[in-house]
Amino acid sequence: MAKKSTNAEIELRALEVYECIIRGYSYTDITRYCEEKWNVTSASTIHRLMNRAMERIKEKTSAEFDYLRDEANKRYLRLYSEAYKNSRWNDCIRILARLDRINGRESITLRHEGALNLMTVDIPISENEMKEVKNQLDSIFGKHGKKIKRD
Fold first, then answer.
1. Can you tell me the distance from the alpha carbon of 38 to that of 46, in angstroms, rounded to the nearest whole number?
2. What angle do CA 111, 117, 123 make, to 5 degrees?
């Protein structure tokens, strides 16, 4: 029976598999590498090593994404402050809507045509509220955007 690997050895192996994935090796290449380097032939063991490596990639990507989102938030808050000081209210509304989108808050654009010519307002709403608004608009305008004649 083969000697069981320690947690430290497993971590080192996962790190090497991580490097193989980063370099673009295929699953077959990684399997062959594991067989040659550590005499690991079990598909489930190789799969676990690859899962650990993929978790590392996700963590690193998530951290980088968080950093980029924080930088974008800082930039938009500076722009918002400048627009607010200069009373550029339309810019303020657009910047706030962009901040909502960057931070995962959904917003929709409502347009009203008529005496006001054209007015756009971004309103943060939940997914369920968006479905409700869509259903209400469908009942007024029909499913294909054509206005339904009412008697």
1. 11
2. 25
Q: Which amino acid is at 32?
A: R
Looking at 64, 81, 97, the residue that finishes a domain is 64
Is 60 within the bounds of a domain?
yes
Domain assignment present for 115: yes
Report the domain count for the chain.
2
Where in the sequence is the domain holding 60, given as residue range(s)?
Answer: 7-64
Distance CA 30, CA 9 (A): 17
Cβ count within 10 A of residue 49: 23
pTM: 0.47
Q: For 135, how many CA atoms within 13 A lie in the half-sphere containing its CB? A: 6
pLDDT, tens only, 97-144: 888 877 777 655 555 454 444 445 556 666 777 777 677 666 666 655
